Amino acid sequence: MTSPTLSQTALVVIAHGSRRDSANQEFMQLVENLATDKAAQFARVAPAFLEQTSPTLLQACETVIKDGMKKIYVYPLFFNNGRHVGKDIPAQVVEAMEAFPGVEIELMDYFGLAPELGSTIGNHITDQL
């Protein structure tokens, strides 16, 4: 099997999900902005929600696969390695791998591990003073 090309590579950003539509829309806008900023690295950037709303990870993977994606990176937008990051999301990734055996699906490190996160938070606080 040949390696997927850049034009066949997608990023699915997964967040918790909320009962509040406005919170979910805020996340969707963030993913849309990320898609614009990172357009050169991924052919498609799509949102997914762990619970409360859709698209689920499985649905998001199905959507980008229909667009010809052969490699999908899953990025958990979570601060801590709690139950969702440690258990629930990996289980959903395995489910997606089983549902789409011809597609490479790779789980990335969660957001909270980003080394510059503390600095970014500090800057955000300082900017509000």
Q: What brief labels describe this structure?
A:
129 residues, alpha/beta, Rossmann fold, four-stranded parallel β-sheet, 4 strands
Morphology: globular
Q: Tally the helices: what do you get? A: 4
Q: Provide the CATH architecture.
A: 3-Layer(aba) Sandwich
Give the overall pLDDT as a whole number. Answer: 94
What name is given to the CATH topology?
A: Rossmann fold
CATH first level: which class?
Answer: Alpha Beta
Helix content: 40-55%
Distance N to C terminus: 54 Å
Largest sheet: 4 strands, parallel
Strand order, largest beta sheet: 2-1-3-4
Provide the succession of SSEs: EHEHEHEH
Based on CA atoms alone, the radius of gyration comes out at 15 Å
Number of discrete domains: 1
Care to count the β-strands?
4
Low-confidence stretches: none
Please state roughly what percent of the residues sit in beta strands, choosing from under 5%, 5-15%, 15-25%, 25-35%, 35-45% or over 45%: 15-25%
Describe, in plain words, how this protein is organized in 3D.
The chain has 129 residues and is an alpha/beta fold. The termini are far apart. It has a four-stranded parallel sheet with strand order 2-1-3-4, sandwiched between helices. It has one domain: Rossmann fold (3-Layer(aba) Sandwich). The protein is built from four helices and four strands.
